[in-house]
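FORM 7B: Structural annotation worksheet

SECTION A. Query
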Amino acid sequence: MSYSPLAIKRRYVLGDIYKHCNSVESIPVYMNEISGEALGYVDESLGIYADAFLFHLPEDVCKKLSTGHYNYSFDYDVLYDQPDKKKHYKLNCILLIAKKALPSRRLADSSIL
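SECTION B. Predicted structure
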């Protein structure tokens, strides 16, 4: 299976928890639920200033991910900073949840018109 890295902005992936999420070295990526073998992994190997996740996934999954076919879900631990009591999130893994297909509109049959 061919793997193809894909870089996506952390802010886009994390959404509302972006400001409170710790950086990651390497975490697994699963499809729909945490069971079985991971699809691949994600890291921040582009460096601290790139502010992007680098997904290492099969090529077909990367294509769908880059065109918006998945929503993101997370497994994380909540950590509290003692001095300022602000919460931070430590990501354990990322889940890709397939978006539900919308029913396609059929064109009216020309014989009916």
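SECTION C. Observations
The longest helix spans residues 59-66. Residues 3-98 form one domain.

SECTION D. Sign-off
Analyst initials: ____
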